[in-house]
Specification:
By secondary structure, this protein is an alpha+beta fold. The protein has one domain. Helices cover 46% and strands 24% of the residues. It has three helices and four strands. A four-stranded mixed β-sheet has the order 2-1-3-4, with helices on one face. β1, α1 and β2 form a beta-alpha-beta unit. α1 packs across α3. The chain is globular.
Length: 82
């Protein structure tokens, strides 16, 4: 089973495009990356980078930190399913 990482298109434009690209191009990750028009987190969306990982809201001060947190969450998911 693949982990699911969801991004808001408004947040992608402002912050998370590089995070999305990094996840999609990482050959070591088995993950579905999806971009939606809105994820319903508008208050956070305009303030800082965020994503949903298997439905869990993940945010960070920087895109590098967000990418690290997302990868950690994916690793937890993989370990649970092994």
């Amino acid at each position: 089973m693949k982990a699911l990482v969801e991004f808001c298109s408004s947040n992608v434009i402002s912050y998370t495009k590089t995070v999305m690209d990094a996840l999609e191009n990482d050959p070591d990750l088995d993950v579905d990356v999806v971009e939606y028009g809105c994820l319903g987190h508008c208050g956070e969306c305009y303030m800082q980078p965020f994503a949903l990982v298997n439905g869990d809201f993940i945010t960070a001060e920087t895109t590098d930190s967000l990418l690290t947190l997302i990868k950690e969450k994916i690793q937890e998911f993989v370990q649970e399913w092994q």
